[in-house]
Amino acid sequence: MKPSRRSLFQFAGGAVAGALFTPAPWRLITDTALWSENWPGIPRPRRGEIRAKFTHCALCTAGCAVRARCVGEQPVSLAGVSGGLCPFGLAAHHLPYHPARLKQGSASEAAAEVARHGTQGIALLDLNPGRTASWAYRRTMQAINGTYLAEPEPFAVDLRGVKTLLSFGVPVLDGWGNPANVFAARGSFHLIQVEPIESSTGVLADEWIPVAPGHESVISQAILRSLQQGNPSGLARQLVDNGPSAVLGDLPEIPEINRLLGAYGKIVVARPEAPVPESWKKSAASVTRLADLPDNSVRVLLIDEASAVDYIPWHRIARKLVRENPLVVTFTATRGGYARYANHAIPAAVYPEILDDIAPPNDRIAASFRLSVPLVTPPAGMANLAEFAGALAGVQASNSLRERVGEIHRLGQGTLLTYADGKETPLRDLPGDDFWRALNAGGEWVGEPSRTDPPSLQPAPVPSAESTGDLPLVAIAQPHNPPGSPIMTKLYQESNLRLAPNRIALSPADARAAGVRNGGRAVLQTRLGKCGVEVTVDPAVPEGSVRVGASPGIQDVCGPAARAKVVSA
Amino acid sequence: MSTETSKKAAGRYGMTIDIDRCNGCGSCMVACAVENNVPPAESGATDRTGITWIRVFQIDNGGRGAEKRSAFIPMLCQHCGDAPCVSVCPQQAIDVNPVTGIVEQMPERCLGCRYCMVACPYHARYFNWWDPAWPAGMEKTLNPDVAPRMRGVVEKCNFCHGRWHAAKQAGTSDSLSAYVPACAEACPTRAIRFGNLDAPAADVALGSQDPDSFRLLESIDTDPKIYYRSKKKWVREAANAPRPGKETPRG
């Protein structure tokens, strides 16, 4: 048979039709999916040697010990060494790549402008006091006759010694202390949480006492009166009978309640600080609280915002600045905070790019010294406030950490914990260089527990009552959050587990009255100003109140128990 | 449930989750996303379209004022012994590991038909509506043991199979006994525990026998390997709903 053109077509057609009855085309569909997996748009993870590095989280004073899993030099995940980490700490290795990171700003231009203004009326605001850098700031300010501003937390609490803990809205079980320490002690104390909305701490508290927002002091005043009269009843009776007891919170009555309960010097002690060289103490400016500074007295303000563990609303700072031509220079990693108001916002390195130590924790009564060791190299052009301010005053601050470690070693007390091998070594058995190396490898120095120093009783300032006329809602403020990785959108946006920083939550009735809907935009108005926000409608929010996120923009206009109004955007 | 199409496993890795210890901090969700290269939420992503292999839901007892109490329930793939998703997949992209009993998802085979999402009674499967994208530079932090998935495929919890393979490759009994998913490792309150349910002395095996432990939707007989525990009766009752908690739609 002679093959013709027609038979060739017939063969091809038959082959195609026959192939449909074989697995081949169906297999091709699967393979299409396989090929498309490798589109160039999908990032490919780096490969390399896997190793572990140890450091301490610098996002808050809890300073959790961290084991970083690294590919080469790049950390790809963080985990707690002696327990879990909070979600902010778990994703902190993303912070250097945050889209909101500040990248531009000239330290030399800022230095020139500070020089033009002169150092008269200069102040430095430290938002993470108690570190070695804080001592460098104090020495610098002393040398140029400036003011060192800080709001140090005065006390630490011995959770292992307390039997009953009464908390007025303090997030004891969610960010207040080192989770490993707090939950190790959790079984030994009875927790009573007083707050308007059942928070993460309230859920696990033994008792949750709901209270109308802004009326927490009614309970604290009743306890104080009851203790002063010597005839405790109700909650006061519970605290006295089930002691040792302590009370946590910012209300003005709480220091006196703790004194009457006998907690001072036993459960509540002055926050212990690791030793510092005597020469530093002699040449350091005193710590001034912002509220104690006269209004309109600061001509030049330097702010350490890059390592901040707190945020002070701008209006409290602004009233301390001179009216005519003040100069504000902030060292920050983000465009969202004081950079909005400063004359110069200078980009600074952040955890985990910078070598720093951690301020004393509030959940332990023994002094400790921990280093946050850099895991990645900071980008070029990052400035450092300690060096910037040191240059103004001729104070050399670059070797401060080494000097301080030398002083701790000279005193020879306490123990070194090394997490890589789980060993505890008495400090007196270690040479100085080995001590420094061990701290840089993620070790921690722990001193002897101190119960002798009762903290000074400084009543908290009482917020002035606001009129309620045109502002029908009372704000329920969130505790300050550390900076969050973009992956935190899993909690903010893809679930409603936490309130996003730029969100507010309203009860359905208040949302209806304000004409706003769930997921919509609105404007939050207070006496201090207004701020654009997104809205969540949440039946858990009591009517007549508004739960507000912790973004700097919201904190600038709306503090705890502030009167507020929400209007549709 | 048909047993003809399901694949029975020899091992039984599973979890116990103590609801009375969970404070809803979200560490498990973040640790999971970091470990498994799940990208940050797209601007339009919601709780329905986002990818959260483990998601913590808040439920309450319906009380008001001081009577109201809440609880948090972490929801993830329940790694059913008789998994409904396996039998419906036309691509055989879902498999039960015969050694571990882990229900594995192979996104390379997935065509994105989402039958498995419909079949899953726990709503623990997620569809990639967007190409995975990380902010510039953040792709350097991706876990080299887990491949990012493309748009158009379904994914879900696989008990951190990258960790399982690493433990297996290390080949020692210590490495296998130290194998633990990221969520269990990250949990600050130790509410999540992981291990072999068939090892009589393991924490999880003991926990699963606790009189206060329960599994979700036991009545449909999927034999899940996630055991929850709560002493509170209202929690045990509420957890019998298909998807606990009220979801708040976001615009």
For the biggest β-sheet of chain A, the strand order reads: 12-5-4-13-14-15
**What's the CATH class of chain B, please?**
Alpha Beta
Report low-confidence residues of chain A grouped into runs of 5 or more: none
Query: How much of the polypeptide of chain B forms β-strand, as a percent range?
Result: 15-25%
Number of H- or I-type helical stretches of chain A: 18
Radius of gyration of chain B: 18 Å
Q: What fold name goes in the CATH topology slot of chain B?
A: Alpha-Beta Plaits
Placed side by side, the strands forming the largest sheet of chain B appear as 8-1-10-9
Largest sheet of chain B: 4 strands, mixed
Radius of gyration of chain A, in Å, reads 28 Å
CATH topology of the domain at 50-97 and 349-382 and 412-452 in chain A: Phosphorylase Kinase, domain 1
Task: Describe the main β-sheet of chain A briefly.
Answer: 6 strands, parallel
Structural class of chain B: alpha+beta
CATH class bucket of the domain at 50-97 and 349-382 and 412-452 in chain A: Alpha Beta
Q: What is the first-to-last residue Cα distance of chain B?
A: 37 Å
Based on CA inertia axes, which overall geometry of chain B fits?
globular
Count of distinct strands of chain B: 10
Low-confidence stretches of chain B are 1-6, 246-251
